[in-house]
Amino acid sequence: MKPPKFMYCDPDTVEDAIALKSRYGHDSLVLAGGQSLMPMLNMRLANPDVLIDINGISDLKRITRTGEVLEIGAGVRQSELETDAAVADAVPLLGKVVPYIGHIENRHRGTVGGSLAHADAAAELPCAAITLDATVVVQGPSGRREIAARDFFEGFMTNACAPDELVVAVRFPVASAASGSAFVEVARREGDFALAAAAAVAEVGTDGRFTALSIGVAGIAATPVRATVVEEALVGQAATAENIAAAAKRIADRVTAGDDLHATGTYRKHLAATVVKRAVVAAVADAQNRSNGS
Amino acid sequence: MTTVENEKPRYKYIGSDRKRVEDPRLLVGRGGYIADLKFPGLLHAAILRSPVPHATIRSIDATEALKLPGVVAVVTGEDCKAHMNPCMNFGPSSIPQFPLAVDKVRYVGEAVAAVIAESRYIAEDAVELLEVEFEDLPAVTNPVAAMEPGAALLHDGHGSNIGYERTFEFGDVAGAISGADLVVEDTLHWGRSAGMPMETSGAVARPGLNGVLEIYCNSLNFSYFSFLIAGALKLPSNRLTMNPVPAGGSFGSKFTAHKVPTLAGFLALRTGRPVSYVEDRLDHLMNSDHHASDRYYDAKMGFTSEGIITGLDVDVVDDYGAYMQFGVGTHGNAFSQIVGPYGFRNVKYHLRAVLTNKCQQGAYRGFGSEVHNWVLERLIDKAAVELGLKPEEIRRRNFITNDQFPYKIPGGNVYDSGNYPAVLDKALGMIDLEHWRSEQKRLREEEGRYIGIGLATTQERSVFSATEFWALNDNPDFPLTSSPESATVTIDPAGQFQLLLHCQSMWGNSPETVGTTVLAEEFGIEPETVNVRYADTARALPGTGPGGSRYTVMLAGAVRGASRKLQRKLIDIAAHSLEVAAEDLELVDARVQVKGAPEKSLSLPELASTAYFFALNMPPGMESGLEESYTYDHPYTTLPSADRSDLGVFYPIMGHACHIAVMEVDPDTGTTKFLDYVAVHDAGTMVNPKSLGGHVTGGAAQGLGSTLYEELAYDDEGQFKSSTFMDYLVPTANEVPPFRIGHVETPSPFTEYGIKGGGEGGRMVTPSVVSAAIDDALREYGMRVRELPVKPATIVATVQAAIAESSK
User: Fold this and answer.
1) Predicted local confidence at residue B720, as pLDDT
2) Residue B326 maps to a domain
3) What percent of chain B lies above the pLDDT cut of 70?
4) DSSP symbols for B738-805
5) Is the Cβ of A8 closer than 8 Å to some Cβ of chain B?
6) pLDDT at B5 > cutoff 90
7) Residues of A numbered 155-174 whose beta carbons fall under 8 angstroms of chain B's beta carbons: which are they?
8) A45 CB near a chain B CB, below 8 Å?
9) In the CATH hierarchy, which fold is given to the domain comprising A180-288?
10) Residue A267 contacts B, CB cutoff 8 Å
């Protein structure tokens, strides 16, 4: 379990990092927190000629709120999202999602951009990003562009970045004061990748009906998926446990993950419906609590 | 948090909670493990492992690998065939094994070739450059299919894929079953898991002076068998010295782990230079010597209408993997406590040990007895439900009673002593089961939550006798009967103590705490003042090493024996100096004093000074110095009968435990959580309740792993599915509940101080108690744990099937 030979670069600026990406493209890999990449290197599942270590780029480590947008730099450590007051205020769901990423030691090293770029379908931050309609900011030799999270995750551990681009930030819309959020995950052990997980953000009108609902699900397909079938079934309907349970069952059709060592496809279908149901119920309760001022 | 309730100690040091003397150096990172060992010019080996389960090795081309700068040599099975004998082997000689595969590979992960290079990095680079041509053979992965005629053979020389088959019957099982009021039957599968120490197995070997090969390794027990490693390496036994290096955990995985040091030794001999081979995690998971039991059972048990067990009929197929290095010793363990703590007399056991294209089996905490215990307890729980008896009640009715000890069980082993009702009562006293049973009902009705209660017992055999290695065979090659342990106690000229242990016993357990506590008890010194060392095999007296929960008992016997000899000498010196008769003297608190007149005394430093430097003050003819050794052999063992209708006494120092777990199960996710857990153990006289509690906790955590999480899985094609810790799930502090621990002390009549072994019991009972609690929580859905590990998907599938059935 020793990595193969590679050239190591540690640029100080985003521009230098992109210059290296432009030069080495597919033969290079970006090292951020290393929580996935280092084991892959040690097991020789990854074999880059060049490793571009972006940990020294201070520009990537900022959290800024501009109006109704919270921008989190790609190099921000995941654990900061658990403790940062601005994050808690702007996007409460993040603080509920992040504790499920690995263990605290992983989150102290693991970065926000690293997790998004790695694009594991069972990972928490990609699931949160699609739920919250985040945009991923990438930068290449010709400048920056923004990619909607739901377009960013293209397939199994593949993202929409070009070989000469670097993920530099992610932008989350600030949550509406009326919304409630929740995250429910089931894993074999605490800190493992989700067998299935669901994030939900809900708004409920004074008549008790859903006025807005977004649900993201991890661990059930090649990418995190939005549970649009469930959202559509519920918006405009009364936010009752019965309605939610009935609608949640529709997610089962979106489960494409089959049998593996830890779960069966059949189990994942049942589990997906269960976590969606529980996340929506909890998000509704959270919305009610917030509107009650508690 | 863990609470320990212990009885009042009867000794000054033995029986008191003490911090381990091993811990300070470990806690500051000065453990001195194998990977810390450096020699000038040290080379590093990396292994090419088979990617296929069963194939003939057509060719190995090392041309490109050897061109890589820094690569020193490539060694293959051809070299082993030419320059080695097969490895030591307690299984059939028709199933030989070398440290590198010879002619064919038999499982994914088997070692094919070793690259030796200036660094492990270069060695791994070169492994990728080796070109091996395999010619695939049919993969044999199902142990039942493996026995069918026409199945591909793993070992042509053995002629069959059945490594061992025999039926043992004690009593009249057919009569017991046919005469029973109730017969419960089940088909059960205990899946493969293994001990996962933080430190893997490793060895450093170097050619030394006088043609002596030195091997430093973290394997255990080698003072028992280093001559066998020398034999494999074609060295005279006195030209191999094995040096103990502390092991960072074993749990069985380093027990007699001979192939790693044998390979390192062979590579050092081939290159003439020091070579380090330390398994990495991939090596360890797929090729550790010690994948554990993988057994398929058809079992039935008869009961009277009162719940009294009439007999047990077991048919077990054990998926042994590709080799049988320890024979069927893990089933010998089952025979040592085949009736559990229960009084029934009729047992039948049909065993087939089957060869398949998987890693070989070895040792893991429990050594196979834990599997049999799970089967026993599964059947008893099934009967309890059918008879409407509480789990504690059916067990209590079947217990061997206190007046029956020493008790000879069917098959011949003897239980030395016990008080099973006391253990059960203590456990019941630590938890309010009536509360939990009413809470179970309330939570189900009011909150739709499912909680279950499991209660199980286990025997905890300890202190194996060597007869166990061969007693299941009719014509053993080497029917040995010794399993000794030695200690050397030295008091230096200043009166300070050195304790020399004669085997590698430092594997995360507490040999130094035990040895120094006994010395403290015998001499009235503080345990922390003793310095402990380990002998290499050139110096070592007879020793067997830890395993089978023997070391505490055996070390206590050896240290006490050496202490007694030393005490006699001290008293004789004092008698001469003080001009007092020896019988009027006693050793109290590190002084030899006149009985009734303690002011007339000599301290240990004064006596030591005399022993080393003042020969004229010593009794005439007495040898200078203060060093004594003692070799303590098994306290109670007998030979098996020639026809094996009686297997003899081979594991008589018998502990006992009862665990009770309260668990919540989520029927929609299949996840579980503990609400309470009580563990009561009787390991005879306790040396140190704190470290015994650690054993119970660690063992129970590992039992939990085997029950819910850990699985060394192969697919139908023989591919290994568990090669990383993302696949092989070891429970962490998040999954392991705070076990509330209690102790009962029923001393052994056969050991020094009445100590029994207590290293494995935790893992022997957790699987039973957790299985029972899950069943109990989801009883309305017909939940029945039949296969370990039980995964969330299985639980949800059972619940969903029951719901679908009931809505038909």
Assistant:
1) 98
2) no
3) 99
4) --EEEEE----SSSGGGB---SSHHHHHHHHHHHHHHHHHTGGGT----EESPPHHHHHHHHHHHHHH
5) no
6) no
7) none
8) no
9) Enolase-like; domain 1 (3.30.390)
10) yes
